[in-house]
Amino acid sequence: MEVSVRRSELGGRARAPPSKSFTHRGLLCAALADGRSRVLSPLASDDTEATAWVLERLGAEVTQKPGVWEVEGGALHEPGENLHCRESGTTLRMAMALCTLVDGSCTLTGAASLSRRPVGSLVDGLNQLGACCVSDGGFPPVLVRGEGSLRGGAAEMPGDVSSQFVSAILLVAPLTEEGVALGLTTPLESRPYVMMTMEAQRAFGVDVGAAPDMDEFTVDRQRYEQADYRVEGDWSSASYLLAAGALAGSVELVGLKAGSSQADAAMVEALRVMGADVSQRGGSVAVERSGLKGIAFDVADCPDLFPILSALCATAEGESVIRGIRRLRLKESDRVAAVAEGLARMGVKVVEEENRFIIHGSAPRGGVIDPHGDHRIAMAFGVLGLAAEGETTIMDADCVSKSFPGFWDALEGLGAELRRSGDG
Fold this sequence. Notes:
Elements: E1 2-6, E2 10-15, H1 20-32, E3 35-40, H2 46-57, E4 61-65, E5 68-73, E6 83-84, H3 89-99, E7 103-109, H4 120-128, E8 132-136, E9 139-147, E10 153-157, H5 163-172, E11 180-184, H6 191-203, E12 209-210, E13 216-219, E14 228-230, H7 235-248, E15 249-254, H8 267-273, E16 277-281, E17 284-288, E18 296-298, H9 306-315, E19 319-323, H10 335-345, E20 349-352, E21 356-360, E22 368-369, H11 375-384, E23 391-394, H12 407-413, E24 417-421
Parallel strand pairs: 2-15, 3-14, 6-7, 10-11, 18-19, 22-23
Antiparallel strand pairs: 1-23, 1-24, 3-5, 4-5, 7-9, 8-9, 11-13, 12-13, 15-17, 16-17, 19-21, 20-21
Helix pairs in contact: 1-2, 1-3, 1-6, 2-3, 3-5, 4-5, 5-6, 7-9, 7-11, 9-10, 9-11
Enzyme class: transferase
GO cellular component, one term: cytoplasm
Organism: miscellaneous Crenarchaeota group-15 archaeon DG-45
């Protein structure tokens, strides 16, 4: 499907979709708990469906009902087929850890984009804890041979490749024979995502000890307890609609937790620094069209904000510098290259460096954008099209189903002028 967006005048209220990251974590913790747990208000998307599918192959029973997914967890078993994780890096990396608890062999695969996502440091970390994991040169597919339990003990890994490596080990750590002492050899990036993992674990009765700078973690042997786990609204998905308000009118989003541990709650502060008219009350955030100014911002802890911040900076007065972009080359696409390509197509000058991205704000013009199958690129340029001269066409626009299946509907419901084609 292609979606063409024109300059629009937005106005209205929308509800933030449920958090993808917390839905993953709720499902995973529920699968590790004995008995029946409920994940309330889950996000149904390609990625979370991938996690549910993999967990079912590993022996959990996942019953999807409107507004609630029931999970019968407990003992995991060898799957009868390869564990295809679609395009979900979270699913792949977390499931790698769970597979170390299985008595038998598990092969984890995924779509072509997933084969480019590194897993080598996680393979090394799990093997230090007594696992038997083998990857293809540090990339999927991954073979895990388990004996029904994991020894545990001490392990080290870098903290600046993917926070998902740390989260994966923390998830299985309480079920190891000896517990786990995990040390990081480089500073942890995207630490809010590890905090989200620990928050979800607490909801299921598991306590993780972390040093103040989160370079060391200690986990004693414990058991996950069944729970009713409510998923909060997704600040990542909300960031696109909040940006749409700042560029094209007035938008209020409800269902967002104030003080959330989600990394992308930083969007509110970024908008304020850029001069946007933002008001926040309880679980509601309202943004009105504003004259934006350039910003200096570090996305090392909130890398998913990079595409939408770049879209905002493209219209802002002056120069913007976004730092902390190195790991963004290892996402669903090379997000740095994809954003640079899209902005150039819309007449915006950028300078791409190893860990900095410089944007010279201007008056973007419409163009044809290839998101390279990346949901966040598609959404960011869909939003930028609301303020561009002429028409902006997003190819492969249904790739947004990875995280926000209702994105185009939500944008249209707020008043966006858009046209869909090729969706049958």
